[in-house]
Task: structure prediction
Amino acid sequence: MIRLILLTDFTESYSYNLFAGIQAYAQEHDRWAVCRMPPSYKSQHGLAGVLEWARAWEADAIIGRFDAGDRVESFREAGILAIAQDYKVPIPSLPAVTGDYCGTGEMAAEYFIRKGFTSFAFVGYRDVFWSQERYYGFRSYLEEAGLADALTDYRETSIDEVWDYRQERLIKFLEELPPETAIFACDDNEGIRIAELCRVADIGIPQDVAILGVDDDRTICGLADPPLSSISLDVVQGGYETAAQIDRYLSHKSDRVEDVVVRPVRISERASTNILSISDREVARAIRFIHDHSTHPLSVMDVVRQVPLSRRHLEIRFKRATRQTIQKYIMKYRVEKLAHLLISSDRPIMELGEEMGFGSPKNLSRQFRSVMGMSPQKYRRLHHCSVSGSPSELLRETVDERTTNPTP
Result:
């Protein structure tokens, strides 16, 4: 039996989804016990206390929140595999459950550009590297699009101060943003705090600022007013891959454990970004037509007929506003809507494809692969469980009597 300690914060959906992925693997292999240890135990007893408990329980591995000053090699000396997760700075001596942080920032920038925004802001933490990496990804994508001068940022808050709403400097920063600014928050906790501060400052959402977070924590996003749009991460798959690596290492089928990279999956759009920021009225009209008729077969000429412009002039203005052609916009929007249906529904793929106007299976597969980089079948298999229910629902589906809790 493999005994694993999961030392993480279970007040957040990320940890629940990571646990769900681990348990999915554990159920398939039927020889695991997973102990969920709260971070408060480490705070009370120190790393030495965690190690003592791990030894008493005869743990084989621990995935946990470690700090830069922790003597993490003590686990290796005790014959326990340690993997870092939910850390402020990388710990070079440990493999980690990490993320495609730059890619997440790039996804946010691409999303806002496609909605026509020309003013951007990033709000993040000063003391965690993943917040900085998301900023660099966001900025680099805007630079490639020629929009770097339209970006401003606020990275002065400590992650330990996210609960503190007495942020006069941040309020001033928000008040000074240009109208119709797209704000990328480093995570959902920062996103909901921005939303609350906007209410204090009488800044309208999304008409004055649009806000996008990361993690797609449904509880947090639902509590925001208006509900917060967020980038969904493939955490369940990350948990599954981490468990598989632990198994291979402890079974001597591999001599090392690699970093597991949790990747962004899609954007869950809610009211905080439900707006187009396109000053060109004809282009805005064309986009609304595409959105309203995305389930029907659409050609570029169908869109052109909705505006008093020639095809050439609309194509030029459309690409200037969205950084992509009309045809590519139609295909990408339709594929993204289908992707959402694939992971939120159990209906047959071809039935959903026909509903979205794709026609033949060959056409569906070709277009989906060109946008998502994989077939619809593989996309559903990889991502369905990560968003198919709330954290509690995921746990009810995956947790069984083998799970234990520490009782030191």
